[in-house]
Amino acid sequence: MLMTYSSSERYLLIFHRPFILRHFIILHYLPIIICILYPFVFYIGIIYIYPCINYFDYTVNLCGGPCYVFDIIPSTFDLLFNITVFETIALLGNIVLVSRVLHRKHHMKQQNKWKKNRRLLIQVLSITLLHNIVLALMVIFMLIQLFSTTYQPILVDLTYNVLQYGVYMVHLLCPFVSLIGLPELWPRSVLRFLRRLLNNNAVQPTIHIPLNTDIRTLQQLRTNYTR
Predict the structure, then answer these.
(1) Looking at CB atoms within 10 Å, which of 18, 125, 161, 220 has the fewest?
(2) Domain range annotation of the chain
């Protein structure tokens, strides 16, 4: 949910910044509170209040899962609404955002504004891309299992034994991916290395010096080259 909301807020921050600043409490703080409270209330209710008996097996992956996942109605609602709908909205929102940014790139005359928006776009899109790679695959595989009439052991194995751990890796990698759009937080040694790398890759002019050139001429050429 937070990723879905961040896609909408990112669009407003780039293209309608005055509008979101005028309604900052409603459009910023209130959605964040809802995104935090809704999953907490929903999963507390569906796991501990829903009329079924939880049996956790500590010898299997994810301890077997809560009992509601074996009931067709709550499990389908959880998959289609809480995961698929929000994931689809976030993905479509990012596509629309990138398309509009690329469309308006050549029409923006204020270079400082474009540079600021570009950094914001790179920072948040890198996080969203990392998140969507794993979660989108999980949603696709789970939807195939839900609507398929035959058992898919390969998809089940990938979903619950591989991609489930990929979700945790996404959260661990998010701080490092966020640094892509925040070069001011990079260590000085990294910045010096990047500057040196760019300088070494830059095309330098060459000067042809005859072998019989005297020392005074060489010093003069060196002074003119370093200016």
Answers:
(1) 18
(2) 2-199
